[in-house]
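#structure-requests
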Amino acid sequence: MLESRSPTTGEVIGSVPTITPAEVQGVVDEVARIQPAWAQLTLKDRARYMLRAADALLDEIDEIAELLVREQGKPRVEAYTMELLPTVDALHWVAKAGPKILADEKVPMRQAFTASKSGHFSYEPIGVVGVIAPWNYPWSIPFGEVAIALMAGNGVVLKPASLTPLLGEKIRAVFERGGVPEGLLRVVHGGGAIGEELCRSSVGKVFFTGSVEVGRHVGGVCALELKGSVLELGGKDPMIVCADADLGNAVSGAVWGGFANAGQTCSGIERVYVMREVADRFVAGVAREAERLRVGDPLAWETEIGPMTSDSQYETVLELIDDAVASGATKLCGGPVEVPGLAGKFIAPTVLTGVTHEMRIMREEIFGPVLPIVVVDSEQEAIDLANDSAFGLGASVWTRDRARGERIARVLESGMVWINDHSFSHGACQCSWGGVKNSGLGRSHSKFGFYECVDIKMNAWEPGLTRDFWWHPYDRTLGEAVRNSARLLYGRGEVRAKALRDGARPLLRVGRRTIRRG
C-alpha cells in the first residue's frame, strides 16, 4: 500500500494499493479492450459525458477542495481558484469545442490535376493514452489531459504522483460518476518504475509533467518505442517590468506569480527584471506585500502560503536561498518559518536583490516562494537576460504600451507570454500550454492538445471517371506535357505563352489518354 501523508501535519490521510511493473501492461490491455466501444460513440455523445463529469465534480467540489488542501498543502482558496474552477470550465470547453475541433475537416483540392478529387482529414483516436502527473497541481494538470484524451475517443491510464495518490483516484471517480464506462480510465500507483513501464507499454502517447531529467528519459523511452510524448518540464519564468508599467498592478502580479502555491508552480515567476527608473518603488512594494502574506494552516480561508509539499523540496529551496546570500545577494524578507501546532515545512515569501546570473538561484528552477529581482538599464538588457536560460515555459511583460509589450513578447524565448498578467491561461483550456528549450515538447490544452491525442488521417476520394495522367506508360509526350503544364499554370508572361505554344500538342495527346480507362 502507498500511504498519503498531509504535508501540513504529517498525518496519514489515506492509502492506495500499488502494482508491480509487470502488471502495468495488463492494465493497459484491459483499457484497450474497452476503448473501441467508447471510440464508436459520436462526438456529441462523448461531449455529454464530459458535461456529466462536470456536474459530478460540482456535486463534490467542497470534498475535493479539502482533499487538495490536506494532500498537497495548497491553501483552501487556491484549491478552488487554481485547480477546481479551471477543471469545471475545461470540461465545458472540451464538450463544446471538442466536436468542432475533431470533426472531419475538408481538404480543398484546387490544383488543376486534382480537380476530380476530394478529401478530408479525420481525427482518429490513438487508443490508450498514458498520463504521468505531478504533485504540485495534482488535480488540474492531469484532469485536463484526461478530459481531452477521453473526448478524442481514447482510453487513459493515469499514474498520479506518489505524494498525491488520493487525488488521482478521485479524478477517476469523478469521470465514472459522470457515466464514463468503468475501466476506460484506470489509475496505477507506485514509484518511478511504474511510470517507466507505462512508457514502455503499448500506450500510444504519454503526457508527462515533471523534471527535465525524468522528462528526457520519458521522451527517450517513447522515441525508442516509436510513440509520441508531450513533456512539460518546468520553467524559470522571467517577468519584465518596463518603466511605464502600472507599478501597483505589477507589484501585485509579481507577488501572486511568485508566491502562489508556495512558489511550487512550473510557470511561476522566478526571475524579475525591472527598469532602473522604477526599481526602488517596485522592490519596496514587492517586499512590503510579500511580508503581508499570511503563512499558516492551508485549511484556513485566510491562509495565503501553505507548507512545502515535500521535505526534499523544502531543503532544495533553502539551499538555493543560502547559496545566493553567500554569493552576495540581499534577502529583504522571508525564509524558513515555524507555524505553531503544525509539523509541516514552511517558507515565508522571500525577496532577493543583488542577484546575478552566475548564481545558482538564477539558473536552476527554485520551485519555492522566492522572488529574485534584477535591476536593468534597458529593454534590450532585460530581453537578453530573460532569454539567458535553459528554460522557456512562460514569460510576462508589464507595460501600459501594448505595442511595446507585443514587440518584446515576440522575441522572448518561451511557449507563452502574458502582457500585464502571468500564468492565468492554464486555467483557460482554449489556450495552448507548453514550452520551448528545456521546458519540454508538445502542447496540452487547446486544439493542439486535441491533435496530440489523435492520429491525423488523410482520406481521399476519386470517382474514377478518368485515369490519372501521370500513370504508365511513360514517354516523351507525357514528360513534355507535364513540363509545359507547370509553366502554363505557374509561369509568368512569355514563359506561359511559350508553354501554350510548345505544349498544346502533347497536352492534347495526354488529355486523350486520361479518358481511356483500359
